Amino acid sequence: MSVMQANKLRSENVKPLIGARVLNSKEELLDGSLSGEIMELLEQRGVIVFPQLNLTDEEQVAFTNTLGKFAFELRGEAVYKISLDPKVTATADYLNAAFYWHFDGFMSPMPIRASVMSAKVLSPKGTGNTEFANTYAAYEALSDEDKELISKLRAVHALAATQLDVYPEPSYAQWQEWRAVGRKELPLVWTHRSGRKSLVIGNSAHNILDFDPLDGEELLVRLRDFATREEFSYLHEWTVGDCVLWDNTGTLHRATRYDPTCGRVLHRTKIEGDEPIV
Question: Contact, 226 vs 142, CB < 8 A?
């Protein structure tokens, strides 16, 4: 009698405090039997690399569906094409803010749980890579004094803050367009239902409530600088076909600079969030 052997997750850590590489085949990943282990690994490692998986869009959607509830884009599409070419991506102009540390969905009741991204067309070597930083590990490494300092603090997050990085002297019409998107107050420390804590920072955070504006910005800069130190961060150098899954609730990410005319395209899918920031 033949017995079907269950799939086993094959992974290796990339760095001590962030990143894992999963070595299972596409077929093993798409059947969904490893999804629970993958998501557990993701919470611990922040980002998972699936080298040269070469997923089609349909396979990427199917893989994302095995990991959690699928999140469609605002315009209803399943796959978002990340490109600075407005002919490829209608919201390309806003993607210039992705060169700065951020997390996605800060205005949503529950931020995106995780995202899957596949490399289709690359920029010239050494450019257009993606950096990730583990905000769980960064929080845990803070001094007791800093943990106490930030334990009850809240910051204002807004699209306007992200765009000021790109356009530091906007027209008043631009400013009004950004402000119309709204703002949200979030704690600096997210206490997850697991009991673990992570930092809620990034380029969307602009001011800490009840602080002098410059003092608040100073603290946000200090926390971001600490959280993105080498020991908490991982730079993924893309190869065509690579697939990367990252935990949007416990990491920051940013793209490294590249020529916007080079044709770089990555395809992203998302998993719905299931936990508010508290």
Answer: yes
Tell whether 178 is covered by a domain: yes
Q: How many domains does the chain have?
A: 1
Identify the domain containing residue 143 by its residue range.
11-271
44-68 pLDDT, tens digit each? 999 999 999 999 999 999 999 999 9
Q: What pLDDT score was predicted for residue 6?
A: 66
CA distance 35 to 217: 40
Q: Span 150-168, mean pLDDT?
A: 96
pTM: 0.95
Residue 50 lies in a domain: yes
Query: How many angstroms separate the CA atoms of 123 and 118, rounded?
Result: 14
**Closest C-alpha to 249, from 221, 276, 220, 219:** 276
The structure tokens listed for 136 are 């769980």
| Residue ranges with strand state E in the chain | 11-13, 20-22, 47-50, 70-71, 80-82, 114-121, 130-134, 154-158, 183-187, 189-191, 197-199, 205-208, 233-236, 243-247, 251-255, 265-271
135 within domain boundaries: yes
